[in-house]
Amino acid sequence: MPTRIARAGIVAKTRLAEAAGVVAELAGWLEARDLGPVFDDETAALVGLPPDRPTCSRDDLPNHCDLVIVLGGDGTLIGMAGRVANAGADIPILGVNFGSLGFLTEITLPELYPSLEAVLDGTAQIEPRLMLRAQTMRDGAVFSDRLALNDVVITKGAMSRIIDLSVAIGEQPVMRVRADGLIIGSPTGSTAYNLAAGGPIVHPAVDALLLTPIAPHMLTNRPIVVPASSEIRIRPAAGASNDEVFVTIDGQSGHDLQADDVVVVRRAERCVRLVRALTRTYFDVLREKLKWSER
């Protein structure tokens, strides 16, 4: 944690009109405590901030604040987590749920100010979350280099057949996957696409990476959990007739995968830090959001 939080970045989900009043109230609350609110351009436009008020791009926001407050859903938080990690900023993210599920943005609107008070007085629980770095190597060079909080997903195109992938850890062959795709997930991402594809729930404190085939066409293809120190290398299998294959990072960006490309996924150099709710454990969130163990 910074020794003192002097500036708090405020990010609202794009075009989330119902957040405008909360953003304005939050800015006043921060200013009353001598904390400078910092707005990204989209959030400033949402609340009608005067044009003389300084703003910055969403990508640049982590360089101008000591804390990021996200008002929206998990997608908005995931997007900011990537930006914070890309900036190399060691600042916490406080997510307030305006979405439908809100597994990551677990703080409710009534909990916003008590949670902020806890951050300011140093009593908040701030949890480090492992990030993934995904590099696509093409023609011996890095074609794409991205960070992910949840997962890296390799899937077939809409009209293509199943895809055939070779998976290795370092130089050690692990498995061949014939499926609709493959998820390489973090513990945080274990409750996202990984869970829907039949993968395990992994507590975020566990130092591990997950490999989960999507609708595998081989009875022996099953999810596997490997050490977080692993360097996972995925390539289209030799001799396979893969059609369209895509790599997607956290569901927010991606590119096509060519026949000789190699996707290398490893633990990122830095974690991202999330502010936890004051009154709920991780297992409480599982029960509340996913109805875990209730049926």
Q: Report strand %.
A: 35-45%
Query: What is the C-alpha radius of gyration, as a whole number of Å?
Result: 20 Å
In the CATH scheme, what's the topology name of the largest domain?
Rossmann fold
Average pLDDT, all residues:
91
The CATH fourth-level homologous superfamily of the largest domain: Probable inorganic polyphosphate/atp-NAD kinase, domain 1
* Overall spatial form: globular
Number of helices: 6
For the sheet with most strands, the description reads: 7 strands, mixed
Ends: how far apart?
A: 40 Å
Which percent bin holds the helix content?
10-25%
Widest sheet, order of strands: 3-2-1-4-5-19-6
Total count of strands: 19
* CATH-scheme architecture of the largest domain: 3-Layer(aba) Sandwich
- Helix-strand category: alpha+beta
Top CATH class of the largest domain: Alpha Beta
Total domains: 2
Low-confidence stretches: none
H/E element order: EHEHEEHEHEEEEEEEHEEEEEEEH
Write the layout of secondary structure elements.
Layout: E1 7-12, H1 20-32, E2 36-40, H2 41-47, E3 55-56, E4 67-72, H3 74-87, E5 92-97, H4 112-121, E6 126-129, E7 132-138, E8 141-148, E9 151-156, E10 163-169, E11 172-179, E12 181-185, H5 193-196, E13 208-214, E14 224-227, E15 232-236, E16 245-249, E17 253-256, E18 262-267, E19 272-275, H6 282-290
Parallel strand pairs: 1-2, 1-4, 2-3, 4-5, 5-19
Antiparallel strand pairs: 6-19, 7-8, 7-18, 9-12, 9-16, 10-11, 10-15, 12-13, 13-14, 15-18, 16-17
